[in-house]
Specification:
The complex is a heterodimer of chains A (116) and B (116).
Chain A: E1 4-7, E2 10-13, E3 18-25, E4 31-37, E5 44-50, E6 53-57, E7 64-70, E8 73-79, E9 87-94, E10 106-107, E11 111-115
Parallel strand pairs in A: 2-11
Antiparallel strand pairs in A: 1-3, 3-8, 4-5, 4-9, 5-6, 7-8, 9-10, 9-11
Chain B: E1 3-5, E2 10-14, E3 19-21, E4 24-26, E5 32-38, E6 44-50, E7 56-58, E8 64-68, E9 73-78, E10 87-97, E11 102-106, E12 110-115
Parallel strand pairs in B: 2-12
Antiparallel strand pairs in B: 1-4, 3-9, 5-6, 5-10, 7-8, 8-9, 10-11, 10-12
Classes of the chains: A mainly beta (116), B mainly beta (116).
Chain lengths: 116, 116
């Protein structure tokens, strides 16, 4: 398997549930990202991990909790979400300094989350 | 702070006609500029980028973009549109190298509709 894989592709949860989104990259990259995509809004960068260390946390509510156990895996743990958290959650990865892919982000297909 | 503007929510073009999707940017230093495409229910895919050198950049699927520093623009173009080009297009900019990861700002996206 190649590229960036996200599971599940679709998730429906109630406001009191706890669930997790999973992302796996097979590209040998050392940075991973969570983005939130809502209709009519720019992509919102939520979290960044570089070499398994969280380096960016853009004022995301604590009901979203990221985890990066190694350079290939990234999770987004969800609990007590609100209906306005319904969105497409995109995972991405990138390589480090230099190289032919400098600056490029490689995205997964996304997890469509609906909060009831 | 870096920013990207995509002034058109939607662009309609007849199949076979040339297309242009507009993007302007604002950065404090030298920009890295990108175009990504998103097909329905999919993640974002990299199309092309400008880092340095020739102002006309060629990318995937016959797309190209022209970097214009004086106008701070990076418009996406294609000489002859295909119905399969219908998708959501995102312009993005990176002007900061943030210690091992890509600090990228995305535009709001422009929906391209190619009419048969």
């Amino acid at each position: 398997e190649t590229g960036v894989t996200q599971t599940p592709r679709h998730l429906v949860m109630g406001m009191t549930n706890k669930k997790s989104l999973k992302c796996e990259q097979h590209l040998g990259h050392n940075a991973m990202y969570w983005y939130k995509q809502s209709a009519k809004k720019p992509l919102e960068l939520m979290f960044v991990y570089s070499l398994e260390e969280r380096v960016e946390n853009n004022s995301v509510p604590s009901r979203f909790s990221p985890e990066c156990p190694n350079s290939s895996h990234l999770f987004l743990h969800l609990h007590t979400l609100q209906p306005e958290d319904s969105a497409l959650y995109l995972c991405a990865s990138s390589q480090g300094t230099g190289g032919p892919n400098t600056g490029e982000l490689f995205f997964g297909e996304g997890s469509r989350l609906t909060v009831l | 702070a870096q920013s990207v503007a995509q002034p058109e929510d939607q662009v309609n073009v007849a199949e076979g006609n040339p297309l242009t999707v507009k993007c302007t940017y604002s950065v404090s230093g030298n920009p890295y500029l990108f175009w990504y495409v998103q097909y329905p229910n999919r993640g974002l895919q990299f199309l092309l980028k400008y880092i340095t050198g020739d102002n006309l950049v060629k990318g995937s699927y016959g797309f190209e973009a022209e970097f214009n520093k004086s106008q701070t623009s990076f418009h996406l173009k294609k000489p002859s549109a295909l119905v399969s080009d219908s998708a959501l297009y995102f312009c993005a900019v990176r002007d900061i190298w943030s210690g091992g990861y890509q600090k990228v700002t995305f535009g709001i996206g422009t929906k391209l509709q190619v009419i048969p």
